[in-house]
Amino acid sequence: MTIHVLDHPLVHHKLSLIRDRKTPGSLFRALIEEVGLILAVESTRDLPVESVVVETPLERTTTLRLKSLDLVLVPVLRAGLGLLPSFLQLLPTAKVGHLGLYRDHDSLVPVPYYRNFPPMLEARPVFVLDPMLATGGSASEAVRQLKSAGAVNLTLVALLAAPEGLERLHADHPDLKIVVGAVDRQLNDKGYILPGLGDAGDRLFGTA
Ligand code: PRP
Ligand code: URA
């Protein structure tokens, strides 16, 4: 499993605002989108490119472009929706699949409730979007479902991860690529990330 932790000054700065319980929902959403842009840039770093010749206003030159614009984004509902606009801004031709999962409050086991994936997953890079990687149960289930639907080139994109979640994914999906904004200290006894940012879905959508 490859893990890329951004550990970037801008990400830390924005995370300091995102983590703050006093940050209102509208600003929280905007900040998630801003960090989402950085995550989108970093998680697409290894996409294949090819040479093309273009005429600039001054001369003919050889330059690079993406070999394929045929990508798939899969936000895990609900909180993954917070990262989707940033990814679509940079990758407007991407297909979007949806996967609905919620964590059972007592067992912390993810419960699937909705699934709609685009076809031909085996031929397309797939980016799973979920800001929070806590126990890793939801991400592991999302990757399991996508693999069973044919996906082979999978990247999980998260804003915050707990060490416990990274270990779980390493055990369940050693072939997975992970891009994460920062790795926090630990989980509490209710499966929340410490210090974390609270419940991402509730803060994004005002349901707390
Ligand atoms: C949150 C989060 C992840 C999951 C992470 O979703 O968005 O999907 O918890 O926890 P895990 O790593 O322990 O599985 P939640 O179940 O709260 O649903 P929501 O996004 O609809 O609020
Ligand atoms: N889901 C969240 O939204 N936050 C956490 O800290 C853990 C799971």
UniProtKB/TrEMBL annotation:
<keyword id="KW-0328">Glycosyltransferase</keyword>
<keyword id="KW-0460">Magnesium</keyword>
<feature type="domain" description="Phosphoribosyltransferase">
    <location>
        <begin position="5"/>
        <end position="207"/>
    </location>
</feature>
<dbReference type="InterPro" id="IPR029057">
    <property type="entry name" value="PRTase-like"/>
</dbReference>
<feature type="binding site">
    <location>
        <position position="103"/>
    </location>
    <ligand>
        <name>5-phospho-alpha-D-ribose 1-diphosphate</name>
    </ligand>
</feature>
<comment type="pathway">
    <text>Pyrimidine metabolism; UMP biosynthesis via salvage pathway; UMP from uracil: step 1/1.</text>
</comment>
<protein>
    <recommendedName>
        <fullName>Uracil phosphoribosyltransferase</fullName>
        <ecNumber>2.4.2.9</ecNumber>
    </recommendedName>
</protein>
<keyword id="KW-0547">Nucleotide-binding</keyword>
<dbReference type="Pfam" id="PF14681">
    <property type="entry name" value="UPRTase"/>
</dbReference>
<feature type="binding site">
    <location>
        <position position="193"/>
    </location>
    <ligand>
        <name>uracil</name>
    </ligand>
</feature>
<comment type="function">
    <text>Catalyzes the conversion of uracil and 5-phospho-alpha-D-ribose 1-diphosphate (PRPP) to UMP and diphosphate.</text>
</comment>
<keyword id="KW-0342">GTP-binding</keyword>
<feature type="binding site">
    <location>
        <begin position="198"/>
        <end position="200"/>
    </location>
    <ligand>
        <name>uracil</name>
    </ligand>
</feature>
<feature type="binding site">
    <location>
        <position position="199"/>
    </location>
    <ligand>
        <name>5-phospho-alpha-D-ribose 1-diphosphate</name>
    </ligand>
</feature>
<dbReference type="GO" id="GO:0016757">
    <property type="term" value="F:glycosyltransferase activity"/>
</dbReference>
<dbReference type="InterPro" id="IPR050054">
    <property type="entry name" value="UPRTase/APRTase"/>
</dbReference>
<keyword id="KW-0021">Allosteric enzyme</keyword>
<dbReference type="InterPro" id="IPR005765">
    <property type="entry name" value="UPRT"/>
</dbReference>
<keyword id="KW-0808">Transferase</keyword>
<dbReference type="InterPro" id="IPR000836">
    <property type="entry name" value="PRTase_dom"/>
</dbReference>
<feature type="binding site">
    <location>
        <position position="78"/>
    </location>
    <ligand>
        <name>5-phospho-alpha-D-ribose 1-diphosphate</name>
    </ligand>
</feature>
<dbReference type="InterPro" id="IPR034332">
    <property type="entry name" value="Upp_B"/>
</dbReference>
<feature type="binding site">
    <location>
        <begin position="130"/>
        <end position="138"/>
    </location>
    <ligand>
        <name>5-phospho-alpha-D-ribose 1-diphosphate</name>
    </ligand>
</feature>
<comment type="similarity">
    <text>Belongs to the UPRTase family.</text>
</comment>
